[in-house]
Design goal:
heterodimer, A: 201 residues, alpha/beta, Rossmann fold, five-stranded mixed β-sheet, two-stranded antiparallel ribbon, 8 helices, 22% strand, B: alpha/beta, 3 domains, seven-stranded parallel β-sheet, six-stranded parallel β-sheet, 20 strands
Chain lengths: 201, 459
Amino acid sequence: MNECLLCDSTIASTPTWKALLGLDDTTIICQDCSKKFVHAEIRNDTDELLDQVTSLYSYNEAMRDYLHQFKFLQDIALAGIFAHELHAQLKGNAIICPIPMHPHKKIMRTFAPVDELLTSARIPFTHLLEKTGTESMGEKTKDQRLVMNPLFALKPGTMIQPTTYRLVDDIYTTGTTLRHAATVLKQAGAKRVEAVTLIRA
Amino acid sequence: MQNPFDPAIRDFLTGRIWLRLHTPFSIETIDEHIEAGHIQTIPGIISTKSLTRQTNHFCNRCENTTPSRFTTFNCAKCKGPCTYCRHCLKMGRVSTCTELIVWNGEPPTYPTTHSLAWLGTLTPRQQQASNELTTSNQTNIPHLIHAVCGSGKTEILFEPIHKLLTAGKRVCIAAPRVDVILELEPRLRAAFPQTAVEALYGGSESTTASPQLILATTHQLYRFRHAFDAIFVDEADAFPYTAEETLQRAVRKAAKPQAPVHFVTATPSDKLLAHMKKIGHISTINRRYHGHPLPVPRYDALWNYTKRIQKGKLPKKLTEWTQARLDKNEPFLIFFHTIKLMEQAEPLFRQLNPKIAAVHAAHPDRKQHVQALRDKKIPGLLTTTILERGITIPNVQVAVVGAEQLIFNKGALVQIGGRVGRSAHYPTGDFVLFHHGITYAMDEAKNEIIQLNKGGVPT
């Protein structure tokens, strides 16, 4: 007997052999709440910067509420809701590189949402980039986003191999963030840069 | 303690327990007051190891202790494992490294001149209950006003509240449901025109004032501590107050240690009745203020109503009942046990009259729809149990669809019936239970109403 992380209603669990053997993932949100998230599975092969972008869900009211509770109310328990889907999408040989947060912002928020998503999905990751400024994308217009100075720099002492890298972010809106990050990796010698985001706005 | 302080901060913080970093004042000003000793800081979460090496957490704001309602994570701010409370998360997160603040300096004094502008007169029974309540206040004894729906419970409180206010005391009326608070607010503002009154509920405007009389949902009391000289809990048996122990603790915490917590309800639970018999006083009123009996429910079988509605047809009896109300121009409420069934039925009712609307707890226009019914702009409302209490609409007729459902327990049915015939101009009305089989709860509710009408006291 456990309660849904989003609506607090009791989740009715049907006994299964898998659950009995402890092989099943425990459900942490109820059927009603999970139905409200809409799968997107958008995959575009884009330009020479981003070789592929995959988004798992589309942005809707349920997603907006989720992001609000997870990022702004700082409810870290919600990181695990999409763990299963993220794990399926991100497992493999590519090197996983989450979009970094500015250290000050991370302390303010007490956690990095993207890192928490990966941790609960049991995906190992390395931080190869660092944020240069503290500005946030959400406060800018599209035109402002396009003419910005580089957002990211390579972390001192990191070596980029001629192999495949996968950037991970929570939401894809205009793609500016991911393109900035991909530019840095490509210039440093990455062969292929893909991106996975949880949400496509 | 000789340092000067900002009276605005004192007024705001007195009786409240607040996040240090989220006050309406600047962080520097708060820091200065903490340094001067006017404000005390309290850690957000207290964690203790029990003998079995299990860690127990305690939230200092909402007093939650349920282990599953806490989450521990690796905090970037305090560089270590940090626990936060998920129970009161929506009021701003409280974690191990979050500090809460309370006023520790000189308490403010509240005005003692208040006028009571209510011009009505109490019935002898109301007056007696009112006097008994005042006596209980003087001796700090908790009191239960057990009075039937429509007996004028709020008016009974006016005199005792006025006496408390003129003694410079701080008073709170709390209710589990926001609808009750919204209904009470204009009545209390009108009754106490000189008094600083504030209504607090999720989404209410926040001010920095220090109101002497506070109307609040019980959830809002998580943010208060040792604030009130008396608390009146209205509709104490309503969900979620009885179901959530933390809410009951929150009410206790919001009252000063010696201050009484009073209850006002038409349908006290057996537990509350027994508890109040043991530790306090009870006043019972079994007549409505206008002296007319409570409407007795009538049963009407509505077999397989779920299937019919799912097939897109309104059961004939329900159509006839609704049509009769429309023809006679009588406002009506139709109660459903689930939102789903109600929303399936809504378009079917719209065929009878396109203005019929539906409301439920999460409905954005709930307030407007209820007001529209009162203003006779719409003929009737479909509703979940959310409107079972606290609302008064003259001449309203009530039907329950699926009265045999578990959610309609005795208390809920008595409350729903209590919507009917509240006004002295229309002291009667139809109260019909459409059912797919009669339950004990329906019979208990009917018997209780008959008993009350005979002048008996339910136990």
